[in-house]
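If your schedule permits, I should be very grateful for your opinion on a structural question. The matter concerns a single protein, recorded as an amino acid sequence and a row of backbone structure tokens. Could you please explain, in whatever detail you think fit, how the structure tokens follow from the sequence? I set the record out below, with my sincere thanks for your time.

——
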Amino acid sequence: MARKRGASLAEYKRQYGGRDDAAPGWDAIDARLREVYGDQEPQHWGTVIKHTLGGSDPIDGISAYECRDGNRPHLHFCTYGYTSLYYDEQSAGGEESGYGFEMTFRLASPLPPADQPVWVCNLLQNLARYVFQTGRCFGQYHWIPANGPIRAGYPTDIVGLVFVLDPALAPVDTPHGRVEFVQAFGITGGELDRIKSKSATCEQVVEGHRRDNPLLVTDLGRKDAEPGAAHDIAR
């Protein structure tokens, strides 16, 4: 049964109104991440000026959690900014919050990481700029070329991204509407060419990797010719 807008707004005002620091959308994302990572304190990067206040970065914050699940230790990044994060009566009770998703990314890495992977934040901000400027959202089995290595100036064969629903983060219903977690996964030039030429679909490329890499962790050291790059995806 659909909720009545008036009743929902009244409840929203009672719960969050009058608080300068109210961020019910942000809190809902944090709650979903706690279900996976418990009390782990993530590494967090925030902007000096929020996008809603005129900041140049569309994403207000990015957190990274250390994940040891499976056979690939990695950092699990999650954005805060595609959705409605702060107190907003116009967003209360909506079907979708903002663009309806936040972006995640998993980077193969020693734990704890030797260096701060700030380049991932830059990558995620650039993806958000594309969405904010064009209004085109990323969803399951979408893909995009990076026009070069996804880490600028780094010797890697990973030059494109495909998008899937994050395999570990279920969608969450926030006071501003539903939020899905869309994960970016890095692909090689050969895989990108196969998608472009339609010799394989994006789904075939992704599902070929998922057999040995179920969390779809991006490894900058992966070569196009390594097992897992193709997995007979053209069959």
User: Anything to note?
Assistant: The first helix runs from residue 5 to 16. Strands lie at 43-46, 61-67, 74-80, 96-108, 143-145, 158-165, 172-174, 177-188. Residues 190 and 224 are 6 Å apart (CA to CA).
